[in-house]
Design brief:
This protein has 89 residues and is mainly α. It has one domain. Helix 2 runs antiparallel to helix 3. It is elongated and about 55 Å long. 15% of the residues are buried. This is Lipoprotein.
């Protein structure tokens, strides 16, 4: 499901990129890069959780979920920032 959402999001960005200004793309890409880094940290945390058990596993999985939520929030903030740049064109 995560992969499907990522592919759908990428397809949407490609479709919209023809309408975006260079500055808007730069802003959105910066946020997207931060979100990707958070997703990578979450993936690493989930992989580490697989090697743990009990409360330690739950804690690692919760930390990974928190990172994924932060990545989603970062992407949303990037979209809003890009929209703000677009409005000031």
């Amino acid at each position: 499901m995560k992969t499907f959402v990522a592919v759908l999001g990428l397809a949407s960005l490609v479709a919209l990129s023809a309408c975006d200004s260079a500055k808007e793309n730069k802003v959105e890409n910066a946020y997207e890069n931060q979100a990707d880094a958070l997703d990578n940290q979450a993936d690493n945390m989930e992989a580490a959780a697989d090697n743990l058990s009990g409360n330690a596993e739950n804690a690692a999985e919760n930390a990974a979920d928190a990172l994924e939520n932060k990545a989603d929030a970062t992407r949303e903030a990037g979209e809003k920032a890009a929209d703000a740049v677009e409005k000031h064109k």
